Amino acid sequence: MGINWRAYRWLWMPFLAFLATRLGIAGVAYFSTPIFADSNVPPYHIRPDNTLLDVFGSRWDTGFYLSIAEEGYRYENVAFPSVAFFPLYPMLLKAMRAVTGDPLWAGIILSNLALLAGVILLYRLVEIEGDVGAADRTVWYVLIYPASFFGSAIYTESLFLLLAVATLYLARRDRWWAAGLVSILAALTRLVGLIVMPMLVLEWFQRRRKALATGEQPPAWGSLIAALLAPVGTLVYVLYLKLAFGDPLAFMHASQAWARQPRSPIEMVAELFTRPVQGWGAALADGALPLDNWADLGFVLVFIALGVVLLFQRRWSEGAFVLMGAVIPLSSGLLMSQRRYMWVLFPAFMLLGRWGRNAWVDRAIFVFSLLALGLFTALFSNWYWVG
Q1: What are the tens digits of pLDDT across the range 321-337?
Q2: How many other C-beta atoms are found inside a 10 Å radius of the C-beta of residue 205?
Q3: Which pLDDT does position 37 carry in this prediction?
Q4: Measured between alpha carbons, how far is residue 100 from residues 65, 95, 105, 108, 162 in Å?
């Protein structure tokens, strides 16, 4: 008997999409580095003898994760304290380094394995609703998102995406305690990981209400405790910081080195709309507008809109996750990096995957995403800040 390939679509389809997009991103990174001029930021090269290892292993925040894995955390007497970065990814990076012997290979393998596992699990999550086409499109949209190249670099995005998807997938399989344990890991990966808790709590109440209405077995009240476990991950890191540096909130204080501190999004956006001295028309003609910040704001507004749509569709857990994942980073005092932060808000891509049944919507998403992905990848490869 031959292999029933349709039965394994959940495995081979995400793998092929992952392979195609990663090869494309690697190609853009490889060929753009000798073509583009360097940015005005003095670059450092950990592996100048290998272009792809250097691009995905020695750009911007990658150095912090590598230094934490190699040397541990630093807080005092440094310009940019590494305690601002949560510990799970560096811990896994250190473990992977013991296998590969090379920290850059360890980080790139770790990130790409997490991304591959994440999109496979995301496919399974969408497939639960019986829409294979939506599952296909969701995976593609995630992998061609304009900032998805971060998922192949030494960044936490792919790991957090995997853990966030896993929490909701396990909850929808009624494996609440497993979901709760994974949510702890998500909160150990980054501060915004806390948003998996309200997602799980809302999912629990939604599933209980549906079960009671249809006469099915509702989730037990005890499993609600599992949905509340995510803050344990944050508390573990807080306790470590207290014991190691005497400051349980060191990660928040360290973030101020990047000018990140709580601030009203309205105030921050209002500044972006402040009329330039030379006037809007002249500033536009001169190329003097902060287009990078405008781009980040645009991505945030799109995801806020998608979160609101999910709430209107009564997909409460998904909508809350997207809205909080968009608004919380927007309240950090800076617009920079917002397009990267949006990438992990996977329920938004699930919504787009359903909308993609319309051929025009599908084509529009593909054309915009691929063009922006190519541009941002080339810029990132050459030390321009794109997230």
Answers
A1: 999 999 999 888 888 88
A2: 15
A3: 58
A4: 16, 9, 7, 11, 22
Q: Which residues of 238-248 are buried (b: 16+ CB within 10 A; e: fewer)?
A: beebeeebebe
How far is residue 372's CA from residue 138's CA, in Å, rounded to a whole number?
A: 18
Question: Residue 190's closest CA among 99, 88, 95, 47?
Answer: 88
The closest of 162, 152, 167 to 114, measured between CA atoms, is 162
Task: Say which residue the tokens 């808790």 belong to.
Answer: 197
pLDDT at position 345 is: 98
96 close to 314: Cβ distance less than 8 angstroms:
no
The pTM of the full predicted model, rounded to 2 decimals, is 0.95
Question: Vertex 172, ends 133 and 189: CA angle to 5°?
Answer: 95
Residue ranges in the chain modelled with pLDDT below 70: 1-2, 36-48, 283
Per the structure block, which two tokens stand in for 159?
Answer: 């790991």
Contact by Cβ (8 Å): 253, 247: yes
Q: What CA–CA distance (Å, rounded) separates 385 from 213? A: 51
Contact 349, 142 (CB under 8 A): yes
Burial of 337 (0-12, 13-18, 19+ CB in 10 A): buried
342 close to 321: Cβ distance less than 8 angstroms = no
pLDDT for 40 equals 59
Q: Rounded to whole angstroms, what are the CA distances from 357 to 92, 99, 132?
A: 38, 44, 11
CA atoms within 13 A on the CB side of 284: 5
- The one-letter code for the residue type at 275 is R
What pLDDT was estimated at residue 61? 92
